[in-house]
Amino acid sequence: MSRPGSGRISRMRVLLVTPPMVQPNTPYPATAYLTGFLRQHATRLGVDVRQADASLELFLRVFSRAGLTRAIEKLEARGAAPDTSGIPDSVAHLLGESERFLATIDPVVRHLQGRDPSLALRIVGRDWLPEGSRFALLDEHLAGDHDEPLAWAFGSLGLADRAKHLATLYLDDIADAIRDGIDPSFGLSRYAGHLVESEPSFAPLAGALEAPPTLIDTLLDEVTDELAEGHRPDLVGFTVPFPGNVYGAFRMARRIKQAFPEAITVLGGGYVNTELRQLAEPRVFDYFDYVTLDDGEQPLLLLLERIATCKRDASAPCLRTFLRRNGEIVYKHDAGQVDVPLAEIGTPTYDGLPLDRYVSMIEMLNPMHRLWSDGRWNKLTVAHGCYWKKCSFCDVTLDYIGRYDPLAADALVDRIETLVDETGQTGFHFVDEAAPPAALQALAKRLLDRGVVISWWGNVRFEEAFGSELTDLLARSGCVAVSGGLEVASDRLLALMEKGVTVEQVARVTRAFTEAGIMVHAYLMYGFPSQTEQDTVDALERVRQLFEAGCLQSAYWHRFVATAHSPVALNPSRFGITLNPQSTRTFARNVVPFTDPTGTDHDGLGQGLTHALYNYMHGLGLAEDVRAWFDSNVPPATVPTDLIQRALDASLTRPQ
Hints:
Blueprint: E1 12-18, H1 30-39, H2 42-45, E2 47-53, H3 54-62, H4 65-77, H5 89-96, H6 98-112, H7 120-124, H8 136-141, H9 151-154, H10 159-181, H11 203-210, H12 215-231, E3 235-239, H13 246-259, E4 264-268, H14 270-275, E5 290-292, H15 297-308, E6 321-325, E7 328-332, H16 342-345, E8 378-380, E9 383-384, H17 399-402, E10 405-406, H18 409-423, E11 427-430, H19 437-449, E12 455-459, H20 468-476, E13 479-487, H21 491-496, H22 503-515, E14 519-526, H23 533-548, E15 554-559, H24 567-570, E16 578-579, E17 594-595, H25 602-617, H26 643-652
Parallel strand pairs: 1-2, 1-3, 3-4, 4-5, 8-11, 11-12, 12-13, 13-14, 14-15
Antiparallel strand pairs: 5-6, 6-7, 9-10, 16-17
Helix pairs in contact: 3-12, 4-6, 5-10, 6-10, 12-13, 18-19, 19-20, 20-22, 22-26, 23-25
C-alpha cells in the first residue's frame, strides 16, 4: 500500500464510509457530497476517492439466511428453546418458527429491493410469513369497519404496498428477537446510540468497544475486513450524522487500524458537529487521527493536501480540526481558511454505492410518513443553512444553521439532471433546514421551463408566501410533499420561541399545500419552557382540528430539549428556566438539563400525545375529546372546536 515518502505519493486511496445504522432505503448523502467534491481535486492531489455504505452492508448481512442462521444458532447455544419459560416472546417466536424464517428471509429482502415483485401475492395471503407480535396491531386496532385489516389503508388495488408493509413488520419481528436475545443495542436504523447521547464520559462507549463481541459486532467486523481488504485505503473518513452511527464508526476505525496501522482515520458528521465541539477526551484519538467540525469539504481537502505533500507538521493549515499532539488534544482553525461555497461543491455522486440493493420499507401506513423509509431518493440542497435562523430551540449559532448560502436555480437543475443521468431515478429529497419560498419558486419555474420531470419533497417554513398560486406551481413542478415546524401549536409559545408563524397562518398555508395535492407533515414539540399542562392539551386540540380539516396528513411529536448551542441554553433567564450544573465533561455535550418552575409533567403527557397522533394519521379518533388520550385527569381544552375551520373560512374572504 502506498504511503507518504519524500514527495507527492502515487494515487492515495481515500474511502468515505457511512457506518451503521441508518435507514436502509436510500444512501445517507454525506459521502455522496464529499466524493463528488473531492473528485474535482483528485488529479491535482493524486487521490482515488471511493465511498461505501457499511450500514447497508451490515443490514443485508444480518437479514439474510446466513446471518439469521447464525443468530438462531447463537440463541440455541445459550440454552434458549421454544419451550423454555422466561425467554422473551420475540425470541421464542423466532426459534419456534425458525425453519419458516430461514426459508423466507432472502426472498423477502429481494422483494423489498424491488427484485421480485411477484412475491407480493404470497406475502399478502397472510399464511406464508411467520407473523409475530408486530402483526398484532393490524388485527386488534386498525381493522375498523373492514373485514380485511389493511383494506382501509390500501384499498383493493394496493397489493404491492400491502405486501411491503407486511414484509416490514416481518423484519421488525426479527429485529426484536435480535435485540431481546443477542444485542440490546441493535435496531433497524440505529446502533448503540444510548452510549453517546450527550454522554459526558467516554467510559460507556469504551466499555462497549472492549466488551466481548456480540454477533452483530462480529458481522460488522467482517464487513469492515472486506472493505479494508477490498479498498486498502490510505485515509478513511467516517460520517456520523446520528448517535446511532457512533459506535459503528469507532468499531470500524479500530478494526481498520489493526489491519492497516498506517491508515489515517477521520471522524465528522452531524453528531460530531453538535456533541463534540468541546472534545477533551484523548482516547478518541486512539481510533481517529482527526476529528473535523461542520461541513467536511474544506477540512478534508486541507487534510489531503497536508498528507499528499507530506506537511504533517504544525505549520500545515487546518480548518475546524481536532488532533492529538504529544498526548494533548489540539484544535486547529487557521485564519484565512473558509468553507467552500455551495455553488463550488459540485454535484454529489452515488458512484460506488449499490443502488439496486437498498431496501424499501413501509414502517407506517400513513402515505406521507412513509416517505422517510420507502423508496430511494436522490439528495440535494437548495440552500445551505437557514434563511430565518431565529428559532430559540434551534442551533442557530452553529454553521449548519447560521451560514446561509443559496444555490442558483439553474445550477440546481443542472445537478438534478446529472443525478438523473447517473442513477436513472427521478425522485429527489431536498435536505434543507428550510428551503426558501423564493428559491423553490425559481426552481419550479426552471424545472418546467427546461422540461425536467421529477418528483420531489423537502422541508419548509410555513410562510405566508406559500399561497395557492405558489403551491400550485410547486405541484406542477413535481412537488409531492413538504414538512415544516408547527412546534408547540400555541401562539404564545410560538412567539416566545420566535418561530415567526401563528397557528392560523399554519392552517392557511397547509390548506394551500393540500389543495394543490401536496402532502404535509408537521414537526410538533412539547415541553418547551413555561409550557403548562393546559397549553399541551390545547395544542393537541389544535392539531386534531388541523387533521380533521385536512390540513395535515402526517406529524410527529418531539420532546423539547435545551441544546447547548441554542438561544434557550445560551440565555435561559429569558425563558424563565435555570440550567442545572453540569458534571465534568470530556466527551459529548449537547443536551443541557434545566429546571422549569412550571413543574409540568411533560413525560407523563408524552404517551397520550403520541397515541393520539398515531390515530389521527390513520384517520381515527378525530371525533374524540382530546382528554381521552391521557391517563391522568388533564383539564378540558379551552380552544373552540371550530377554531381552525373559522380561520380557514376567514381566509377565503381575504385578497390573495
